[in-house]
Amino acid sequence: MMQRGQTGGWFLFLLTAVIPGVHLQRHSSVQPASESELPSEAQIHQPVLQPSEAVPPIGTYVVTNLVGKPCIKATMGAEYIVTEKKKTWYFNLDPSRVRTSGFCGEGAAALSLTLPGDAASLQFTFRKENNIFYVDKLTAHVSPLPVCQGCANKSYSGSLAHEKLFAAGNGQSFKCQSEQLLWTSPELRIKLVPLQMQAFTLPNGQYGIEVECQHDFTKRVIPIIVGAIVVGLILIAVLTSLFIKDRRGGYTRL
Asked: What is the pLDDT of residues 95-148, one digit of tens each?
């Protein structure tokens, strides 16, 4: 006499033979991956250094005060430049992945840009003195994937302190189309291009009158000066030629 379990087995076998699309499957249990086996958020978004430069994407970052009004606004593209074993590597900050934070006080303010898992960060500390604001300190950090197989994980960080960077009057904005290259450490430089920022006072959250950086002023003025010098030299040459011709024409035979 057949056992009930054997009868059920023969029934399943006949069912798979008669009805297409029905398959026998071994009974097994699948255990979900443990938290230690899953990649962390920092690993997923860990920066990848590139051997060549690319134009960094431009993002606009805003910090609001306690009443919800903008007190810091910055528009810029940011590039990390890493030097490792006499080779240069590059990483661009992606605005779509940046978490913006900060604060605004009476005479001090801060803007922090951070990637998930603190894989990279950029922090600006602002000061206000005599109706002029400026960046007093810049701190940078990046923890990229190793640049080669077998290379150890390494983080790069640096800072600039007690500086008066990107200064402008109260209610004005500092603007620079030229690149700003900042050496935070021997291994890490930060390039900001283009750059526009304003802190403490932002009427209606908009940039105020633009204060042009020295690099842009030089680029704009030098062609004008050179052009004026060339025109001046041409005028001198023409006037000298006319003067010589006039002197020769004034001689008479004896």
From this structure: 999 999 999 999 999 999 999 999 999 999 999 999 999 999 999 999 999 987
Nearest CA-CA partner of 95 in 76, 119, 108, 109: 76
Residue 10 contacts by C-beta under 8 Å, 6 or more apart in sequence? Answer: 2
Burial string for 219-242 (b: 16+ CB within 10 Å, else e) reads eeeeeeeeeeeeeeeeeeeeeeee
User: Which residues contact residue 197 at a Cβ distance below 8 angstroms, ignoring those fewer than 6 apart?
Assistant: 72, 73, 74, 75, 76, 124, 135, 166, 173, 174
Q: In the numeric block, which tokens belong to residue 148?
A: 């080669």
DSSP code of residue 50: B
Q: Is the dihedral of CA 59, 60, 66, 67 positive or negative?
A: negative
Query: How many residues in the chain?
Result: 254
For residue 201, give both structure tokens.
Answer: 């006072």
Amino acid at 10: W
8: tokens are: 């059920």
| Cα distances (angstroms) measured from residue 249 to each of 125, 236, 242, 244 | 73, 20, 10, 9
